[in-house]
Design brief:
Structural class: mainly alpha
Number of strands: 0
Number of domains: 1
């Protein structure tokens, strides 16, 4: 377990449910990217970031280091994508 004091605040069942919500966000974002010809980058990266954050909450309770590191990278890439989309939008105006 990562931090017993933090993990103790979240019931394991709640952490599992939150993890499933995160999983659904990431799957939905990937499906959106696949099916949409011109995806909205804010929706795509925002949903990925939300999914990574929710899965991280679950992984704090149900520690799995490789998955936790993956979610850190997933969140970092999503933040980079959001920043890039914001810069692109500002340069068009």
């Amino acid at each position: 377990m990562i931090a017993p004091s933090i993990a103790a605040l979240i019931a394991p069942e709640v952490a599992t449910f939150v993890g499933f919500l995160g999983m659904a966000c990431i799957i939905a974002a990937y499906a959106y990217l696949t099916w949409k010809a011109d995806p909205n980058p804010f929706l795509l990266h925002g949903t990925n970031l939300a999914g990574a954050a929710l899965l991280t909450v679950s992984l704090v309770v149900h520690t799995n280091w490789p998955s936790l590191v993956l979610e850190g990278f997933w969140a970092a890439i999503a933040l980079w994508g959001l920043a890039k989309a914001l810069r692109d939008r500002r340069s068009k105006t």
